[in-house]
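HUMAN: Spend a minute on the protein record below and explain its fold to me.
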Amino acid sequence: MRRDSIFYRLFQQSPALVFELLETPPANATDYRFDSVAVKEPKFEIDGVFLPPDTEDAGVVYFCEVQFQKDEQLYERLFGESFLYFYRNRNRYSNWSVVVIYPTRSIEQSDISPYRSLLNSTQVKRVYLDELGDIQKLPLGLALMVLTTAKEEQAPEEARYLVTKTQEEVTEPAVSSAIIEMIKTIMVYKFTELSRQEVEAMMGISLQDTRVYREAKAEGRQEGRQEGRQEGRQEGRQEGR
């Protein structure tokens, strides 16, 4: 399941969602926009950046990393790229902050000693989704994040609950529709091996043959092929020994 794709869709739809993870969100959180930014010389791109509105007062830029696979040099890359971008754009921003989202603590980089001062500072927020609590007691935005990590046997029930909660609590039709569409998307990504009819039966609501649905199915098949090739190479090496 491409969880980074899911989170980027979430943040594009509702940039203020990331600030629900912070104890002290900016006062103008609803005015931020989610984007990717490029840095030249050396050239690279940072995917998850929350940019403050263009006003006379310089705002805080937030860098967000969604990490669902172990990367033993994540902080080297994340801080290196973030600091370089901030340095190149110092006149535009008054400060910086970093949010790192993990499914669980076990995915975090093992050696964090070189960055302990940064990681323990108020400018860096590490979020472990499995520690946010019961999905049915969370605000809808956070619940959507946690749904991406739900076990397959629990996900259908949780998804149905969130659909019902959205229909009951969100009065604005456009917002309600967008949230339910995101729940559908998460479930399609999570169960790419099932047919549309099977996912519909699981959730109790209909799924349209949308571009998002087709992309999710295609990505699922691609991941399956990649995993199959990796397993095949691993088995071949073991047999060779």
Remarks:
- Residues 1-131 form a domain with the Trna Endonuclease; Chain: A, domain 1 fold (CATH 3.40.1350).
- The chain has two domains: 1-131, 134-224.
